[in-house]
Amino acid sequence: GPSLVWFRDDLRLADNPALTAALERGRPIVAVYVLDEESPGIRPLGGAARWWLHGSLTSLADSLERLGGRLTLRRGPAEDAIRELAASVGADAVFWNRRYGQAEREVDTRIKSSLTAGGILARSFAGSLLFEPWTIQTGQGGTYSVFTPFWRACTAGPPPRAPFATPESFPGFSGPIASDQLERWELLPTRPDWAAGLRETWQPGEESAHRRLTTFLHESLARYGTERDEPAQTVTSRLSPHLRWGEISPFQIWHATEQARIGLTGTAQASATRFLTEVGWREFSYHVLFNSPRIATVNLRPEFDAFPWPKLDERVLEAWQHGRTGIALVDAGMRELWRTGSMHNRVRMVTASFLIKNLLIDWRLGEQWFWDTLVDADAASNPFGWQWVAGSGADAAPYFRVFNPELQAKKFDPHAVYIRQNVPEYGTDAYPAPIVDLGETRRAALAAYEQIKGMK
Ligand code: FAD
């Protein structure tokens, strides 16, 4: 019978271990994506992520069709969808690349046992992480909660495997297969269509991901180490949404960067190391997610459960969400996010710190807003980043380190280029006065922190 390849967070043909295994098996292949919003514990996708998914599936389907195949779409609890599809086409093998969230792993485990019980071969592969969480252990066999020793342990071993070749043909299954229509999933916003800025900024899909990587390596890698913190520069790779959906793999990024490094010296060479270290932070986020599955809702440091958050003022939260706080760098970041579905890393830290430590709003509300609005919204990196800023997370910034958004702007956007790009009325009467006093609110936050300090 045919092999079934179940695409999930790996919407690519190149360097796809599950697809490679199916090709090696030499039977016709049924490629499927399942939109699963029903299995227990699966976090519903945010709006920007749904927009991205639509584009990415369109692109994957096109690529498969160019090779003579097609992409089958199913909706519903994955367990039912996969079992039903395997039965209807008479598949005797199902291949996929692994996921690392708890709910997703539970779904996959159940499917694996039910397929196996039915006499169908079920195999999973490592496609999305260079170092799967359980393979990296401390000397005592424990898990890491600090990045530097984690990354040292990762890079001490053999280098990540080389990427698998891009398939040149695709032995599509010729029988009839029922498929949903992508348009029917209504992943794109309609009333209103808020995605114009996303369309201008991004092109989902595997080809576009590789163009970005190539451009980045040629034009920016050498400057990455020195300019990566300046939001007005377009020096970072902007690969995060492509990585989130697996349109490009970390193996491909790793090896292409190592290749590019050969031509570099001095600070430019150090830039390449720095870039791969950032890719390492993504690996670390997944290590933490795997070991603390409730990272999006539960403080990793339990003393933060007692943090005295004041009663929420919705208008203040909305001012932050829509970039109307009167603090220019914060507003610039929040408007960039709303318009483009993304925000520079330095500004993510500043806007998050402002929400938590100047507006005294629970980090979980910020995490949810980012989850809904980021095209790269990621189940590991997003809550990890928020808990890092809050001080409640793994290897986090200490709570008492409060970013001053005005000093951050002076340092990283000295000519207000980024601010003006995003806040056109900056410097005019139309721009609002600050909704809070930075010094006063900082003192209030530190006093609140004093109450939980030392608790465990
Ligand atoms: P580059 O600087 O080019 O880095 C290359 C890749 O490394 C990125 O694409 C990303 O996959 C990874 N990476 C870089 N920095 C980090 C980091 N600090 N943590 C984890 N991975 C990193 N990143 C997401 O991918 N999804 C999120 O939902 C997300 N939410 C965040 C929330 C907060 C509050 C903070 C402070 C950070 C968050 N990040 C998130 C991390 C980081 O801001 C983005 O990965 C980065 O801005 C993406 O831009 P880039 O691709 O140009 O990064």
Automatic annotation (TrEMBL):
Protein's recorded name: Deoxyribodipyrimidine photo-lyase
Pfam family, one: FAD_binding_7
Domain Photolyase/cryptochrome alpha/beta: 1-130
Organism: Cryobacterium breve
Keywords per UniProt: Chromophore, FAD, Flavoprotein
Signal peptide: none
Cofactor(s) demanded: FAD
Family of this protein: Belongs to the DNA photolyase family.
InterPro entries registered for this protein in UniProt: Crypto/Photolyase_FAD-like_sf, Crypto/Photolyase_N_sf, Cryptochr/Photolyase_FAD-bd, Cryptochrome/DNA_photolyase_1, DNA_photolyase_1_CS_C, DNA_photolyase_N, Rossmann-like_a/b/a_fold
PROSITE patterns in alphabetical order: DNA_PHOTOLYASES_1_2 (PS00691), PHR_CRY_ALPHA_BETA (PS51645)
